[in-house]
Each structure stands twice: as structure tokens, then as C-alpha cells.
## 1
Amino acid sequence: MTTLTFKMLYAHQREGLSWLWSLHCRETGGILGDDMGLGKTMQVSAFLAGLFHSGLIQRVLVIAPKTLLTHWIKELTVVGLRHMISDYSGSNLDARDFELQHAFKEGGILLTTYDIARINYRLIRGDFYNDADDEEEGKIWNYVILDEAHFIKNPKTRRAQSLFEIPCVHRIAISGTPVQNNLKVPPS
């Protein structure tokens, strides 16, 4: 990560970077559950920039609500990753296929929505991509980032089940509301 990127982060975001790095070193995932408005997208973007610039990762899948994709593009651009973004969210199937194949072959960051990922999870997980040299134990994606992760809070839904079918080395869930109370869940 560049010094400029590091300097523009707040102290709590730098602490978040350190925590994300500890997850990376332990080859595990986690939930980034800071309150809304504290810059979770920037934390993850800066973290990914450091990993890409260090050559530690090749491919990242970011799944977010459609309304947040422009925010992801903005933050990834700020940290110098604009050239690595592929948009897999449009309605043009040929364009989406091109972006997916580009991400598989060249690496980078593939941005998509929950619904498109649910419908196309077999394509996204690489069922029709055969380049064993690029895979780490069958895992094409180094990271799968799930923004607004409460979209998959019920593991029995087709959405959640299909997204967990996408193999990856690390999975990071992002949520401003990691614990949501309802009538079936006792309040904390």
C-alpha cells in the first residue's frame, strides 16, 4: 500500500487493516462489523491494495448491493486499483461474460451484486474455467468480500447457499449491523 493511502486512513481504519492482515496470515476469514459510516469499504480497499501491490493475491470477488457498487469503484480508485476493476453487474450477458473471463485470466477485482452472484454462482466459482496453474487447491478467488452481509444472514436461503458454494481462500463479511435482533432472536 502506498504511504499516501496509509496516511489518509483514520486510526481505527489502520487498526482494521492490522486485523485484516492477521486474518490473512492465519488463512481465515472474518466479519468487519464497524458501525455505519466508519469507512469499512475504504479499510477493505486499502487492505486489498496492499495485497495486490505486494503480489500476494490475484483475484478478488466483491459482492454488494447494486447501490453500493459505485461506492466500491470510488474507494478502489482512491487506493489506486481502478485499472483492476471488472464490472459483472450489468444486464448485458456478453459484457458480463467478458468481464468474468478477464478476471479469471488477468486477475483483479470482480464487482457484482447478490442476485447476479446467486444466479451465476457456477460460472463465478469457475466451473467452466480450466487453468489449473492459477488455482490454489481449486480456489480461483483469493478473497470473496460480502458487503452488507446481512443479506445472507439466513444460511438456509438459496442466496446464502449459492454464495458459500464459491470457493475462496478468504471470505470477509462486511456489515454495519452484524447482529440484528428480531422476534425469534433474544436481544443481546
## 2
Amino acid sequence: MDSRPTPVPGTTYRPAPLASLPETLDLNYYQWTPERKLLEAKRLAIRARLKREYLLKLNDPNRIAMIQDPAVVRWNNARIYGPTQHSSAKPKASLMGVIFALGPFVLSYYAIKTSRERKENLIREGKYDRPYHYIY
């Protein structure tokens, strides 16, 4: 079987060897089934109804208040209040927070302490030649 991409008829587009053909360039994309046509008609009817509703509110001569879009209100509430209202601190998250907050300090303290103790022990045994022992 030939694995090379075939050119799209009627266009100058040639698909790249390692990339798939974009679905909008596929000729079968625009040949809709009756089910898809029905779904698209329903979607367009909903959009037209919402647009008409919005335009009626917008062009109302007796309007005194702002037009509230429920989707924008929901989005704004989710942005302001965030996930903190619906979640609480769990033990694993708290433990990970403590580890990531205190872990670097504890690790660096341990590394400095052990290296200093090892160096002092070597100095006491006389096995470590201090390069600047006259300074301190």
C-alpha cells in the first residue's frame, strides 16, 4: 500500500509526508449526511433565536438597565470565586506543600552541616590541609 499522501484534487495543496490532511481540505467534509444537516439546522435555529432575543433587548426603547448575558455572568463568577469555594485542603496536598516549602531549607542545612562536620573531623585528625589557615 502506498504510504505517500495523495494531492487534493482541484487545489495546489500537497500534504506533507508526516502530517495528516486538514479536515477542511477533505472533500468529504462538506458532503453532509442528513443527520448532520439536521444538527446544523438546529444549531443555526438556536443561534438565530439567541441573536433575535439579544437584538430585541438591545433595541428596546424603554430599556434602562444594562443587558446581562448569562454566560458572561457565569464566567465572571467562576473567575472571581475560583475553585476555592468548592475544594478544601487535602492531606496529600498539605504534605506536598510542606515538603516543597521546607524541603530545600532542610536539605541545604543537612548538606552544609555534614560537610562542615566532615571537614572539622579531618582537620582534627590532621588529614586536611587548610589553604587559608592563617586568616581564620
